[in-house]
Hints:
The chain is α+β, with helices and mostly antiparallel strands. The chain is built from 16 helices and 34 strands.
Amino acid sequence: MLRAAIDTGGTFTDVLLFDEEQNKLWPLKIPTTPDHPEKAFLQGLEEILKAIQRQPFELKTIVHGTTLVTNALLQQQTAKTGLLVTAGFRDLLEIGRQSRPELYNLQQEKLPPLVPRELIREIPERIGPQGQIIQKIDLSVAKKALQDLHRQGVEALAISLLFSFLNPQHEKRLSQLAREFFPEEFIFLSSQVSPEFREYERTSTTVVAAAVAPPLVNYLKALLNNLARLGSSHSEVFLMHSGGGMLPAREAARHPHQLIESGPAAGLVAVAHWAKVLHLPRVIAFDLGGTTAKTGLILNGQLQYTVDYQVGGPIHSGGQNQGGYPVRFPMVDVAECGAGSGSIAWIDPGGHLQVGPHSAGAYPGPAAYGQGGQEPTLTDAYLLLGYLHPADLLGGRKSLHLVPARQAIQKKIAHPLGLDVREAAQGILTIANASMLRILRLVSISQGYDPREFTLLAYGGAGPLHACQLAEEMGIKKIIIPPFPGLFSAMGLLLSDITMDFVRTRILSLETKNLSTIQSILDILLQEAQAWIQHSPDHQKNTLLLPSADLRYQGQNYELNVPFSGKKFTSGLMNSLLSSFHQLHQQVYGHCEPEETVELVNLRLKAIIKVPKPQLPSLEKASSPLKEQTASRREIWLKTTPQTGLRLIQCPVWPRHLLHAGHEIKGPALIQENNSTTFVGPAWHLWVDSLGNLILER
């Protein structure tokens, strides 16, 4: 049977087909169709099936990564959303938190709330801090508010009441009333979306879910209908979520906020798998696609998670205030910036060169695409400096045009700055690298890790082009470029398991007297997880339940998540958990206080249904060393040090499919393949391992 992985990005759609019986992979990369992303999805699927002479009905599962939710938030193309709150809390979204993304920037503009004040309605009711009902809900006021929102054309509804995570009774009653005016699939309760304390973050998460639900649901309906027409109506369709797992498509529609970092999370899943296979204890993942650059850490083969994330700001990042919309959900910790190969270079009012965050996308795309684009991008700079060949993009299915690329850079960058056109192109790459270095430092140095102790695993269509320069700046001495680097996130889709996260808030001191209470909360989570597993289409397969606790010292305002094992919360487990918390606090903050009281804030449980993973076959061993004369040559403009100017060199170009295990290449060199190009810097040495990875060492 066949399994398909389809990752739809802002510029390209990646398709990877896997035959479980033959353990064989087929890759395909095509341009995304931004206005109707399902078109590229279906086109890629049909094309790859036709190429290997297989039929749609042979598809057992389809795993999909999508940027639809992120793009809807970034482009403010969300549904008209209404919000019901407890009386007195109408300005919750507007007030938010007092922290700012740039402390000393007085001109910083705050993102407008996803729900304007005129679409927020106050409902007389009150749940107390112990979950007790203090004031019964006023149903007549609630019905009038719902009628009014419906009359104003509201498409989706968010309901977030005070302390509903302890007692959801009032939210559920409002939901029943709301079904008279809104489709049930577009009504979201905070007690279901994010049953945790912190009113602002819980409300923001619920609003994000409601605001993106209509475009997501409409997209999924169109996709599933087209798959049925194609002949794959029986195929199980899963969506990758930000927690590093996948969900059945119809279930994902009830958790749309979890799809914010769908594609990037898949890439990090693949990196974690590679780290385990290659026994790499510390890895920095670096993904550079057409629209954004992404990075994250893998420690001892394990993904790193955050529950605090902001989306819609200039940088998407966990644990950092970047001026976006807060979303609270256990997500793979990834930092992201708008510096991709299609990002537009421009000059700000102060006369300084900038790159991104706006992208030329798939259409019109970079000027070099010859589709009418007039703005200079990183791709145009690559072409002008010789790193890309005009006829080799996507294996020759898309041509690049030198003349419009040169004209765009000359007109928009070189002439205004008084630079030679190639110096301007190099400047574009330098500025883009600075943005990429910022997020690399954000996930490493800012978290107390020395990047010199890490291996850089670079992927994405353009990641391998930048890897050597970034590694040199970070002091990293080893780089890995995996097979299919341009489709590596799609590989992560094939390596993902089906997962779901469950959480309960209960603030208690971690003491023996509270063991029975904590056990009762854990029992509730275990029951919910088992019920979810039983309703899963693959519940008969191997499953895992991974509990963890959000802990803090009494008086602290933020928590650290500490995993533990076992279904019985005994005194021995509690002592082990306390010890782990003190150690983690020492690592993160540089101190710990073993004599202080530790509080439990949230109990969490991750349920995992294991899925079979593809195994990469060993690469054929080289029978003889590479001969220099077999490589083609290309003129590239190279800047070796910050002090020197550009110099023209004849750079050898090696097709990757000709490289076998044991082959070695000294930089500078270009390694070319259908979905990506790798640049081996002058100070680097490349060798090929038995799995086909390119290993670059200084």
